[in-house]
Amino acid sequence: MTQTLPLADPEIAAAVFRDHLMRSIDSAAKAGRDWAIVEWVDDLHAVVRMWGRLGDAQYPHFILLGAEHYDLHPPRVRIVDPRSGWSDAAPGTKYFPIIDGCGWFQLHPTYQFADAVRQLACFSYSADYYVSGHTPTDEQRWQQGRHTVSATLTRLHRVLGPEFYRGRGSDA
Q1: How far is the C-alpha of 49 from the C-alpha of 44, rounded, in Å?
Q2: Cis omega before residue 128 (within 30°)?
Q3: Which CATH number applies to 10-168?
Q4: Cβ(28)–Cβ(149) below 8 Å
Q5: % helix / strand / coil in the chain, to the nearest 5?
């Protein structure tokens, strides 16, 4: 069953999102994780760079986070290509990560939503998961006040690590 998510008050969402994201980046730096905000697209959207880690090699990946529903619901998550104005990274390109063997995360380059076909980072800490017909268990469900964008980024960091990350779509 698909559902719609209510939009957050943009001013409140922007302030809470910025605060939570800055805290998350600061905490990650203290833990030795090289996450960085590459660009604030606007008050509700930021691009974060994370590294896919494969053996001794590291490859940059860019995540566009959207706070349209934040923080009652998780941020929207898209893996994007910096060469194309932050449009969705296409499979077979160096910015599209290959992730395998993770039962709680899937990256669909195209997914049929009720209103459009677009990328789906399919896990319960992404807003699009909730409008794509998926139903999380109580343990998986986003909980306002308990979860923040840090939970989203931590899970993305994990899938971009050696347990699940298999590289990028190409070297070009």
Answers
A1: 17
A2: no
A3: 3.10.110
A4: no
A5: 25, 35, 45
The pLDDT tens digits along the chain (172 residues) read 457 899 999 999 999 999 999 999 999 999 999 999 999 999 999 999 999 999 999 999 999 999 999 999 999 999 999 999 999 999 999 999 999 999 999 999 999 998 889 999 999 999 999 999 888 888 899 999 999 999 999 999 999 999 999 999 888 7
CA pair distance 124, 37, nearest whole angstrom: 22
- Residue 26, SS3 per DSSP: helix
Q: Any residues with CB less than 8 A from the CB of 80 and at least 6 apart, and which?
A: 47, 62, 63, 64, 86, 87, 88, 89, 95
Q: Give the integer Cα–Cα distance in Å for 66 and 14.
A: 10
Q: What is the pTM of this model?
A: 0.95
Computed over its alpha carbons, how large is the radius of gyration of the chain? 15
Task: Say which amino acid occupies 25.
Answer: I
SS3 24: helix
The answer to whether 51 touches 33, Cβ cutoff 8 Å, is: no
What is the domain partition of the chain in residue ranges? 10-168
